[in-house]
Amino acid sequence: MNLGMVFDEVADVYDRIRPGYPDEAFADLGSLTGAGRGSAVLEVGCGTGQATRSLAALGYAVTALEPGPGLAALARRRLAGYPAVEVVPTTFERWDARGRRFDLLVAASSWHWVDPAVGWARAHDLLRPGGWMAQLGHVVVRRPGEPEMYAATADLHERFAPGDPGWGHPPREEDARAAGETAWPVFGPTVTRWYPTVQWLDGAGLADLLRTTSLYRRLAPDVREPLLDAIAERVRTALGDRVPRRYLSVLRLAPR
């Protein structure tokens, strides 16, 4: 199974615990692209519809693609009150657009699952002249002097899953902002906006959050679950059952 599909196994947890995106990001999306009520939006990999709900609330007509059947079904239920939203259970690469073109293509924490050999050119072709592509995401960051999940549980990670190259401390906020931009093939220059956010979690909540991330989903269940139980217990006993998960939420845009 494609790793991107394994989120379907935890659709309800994903919907409950994954952080959403700031309202300011959607306000900037509209002001920077000129999209307004009635604009045609294609969303790639909508998950349970977290970003979709914000797009729909702005009056956009959204076609949301989601390959996970459980995620798509949950998104459809969450979005039942928005008649201008259609959730289609398919991948971006296989979806038949039937000649349709869009004002805006949005991918919220999902574009990395799209085959780059297909995705960039197809995104360009599905946009009308003057259209925009937008990506939303979160970069986990740390604040010096503040308890941080990886630092507090590094020994547990090495005990249960030694040598995993994914383990490590997240960057400081200023270092994340300073990271170089990557140009998008076949698109114009990118515009970037950052939004600092924080999610406070108890031990059980942190374990659930990690349970929905690709770094942990790729672990075998008999490794992942004992590791997450140990992390939750560490947060309860050593960190007062309260730990911050700091993010730089990011909006990146580029014109067709």
Automatic annotation (TrEMBL):
Ordered alphabetically, the record's keywords are:
Methyltransferase, Transferase
One biological-process term from Gene Ontology?
A: methylation
Q: Name one GO molecular function term.
A: methyltransferase activity
Show where the Methyltransferase type domain sits: 42-133
List, alphabetically, the Pfam families matched.
Methyltransf_11
Q: Which PANTHER family match?
A: METHYLTRANSF_11 DOMAIN-CONTAINING PROTEIN (PTHR44942), METHYLTRANSFERASE TYPE 11 DOMAIN-CONTAINING PROTEIN (PTHR44942:SF4)
What's this protein's family per the entry? Belongs to the methyltransferase superfamily.
Q: Can you name this protein? A: Class I SAM-dependent methyltransferase
Organism, as annotated: Cryptosporangium japonicum
Q: Species lineage, top-down? A: Bacteria, Bacillati, Actinomycetota, Actinomycetes, Cryptosporangiales
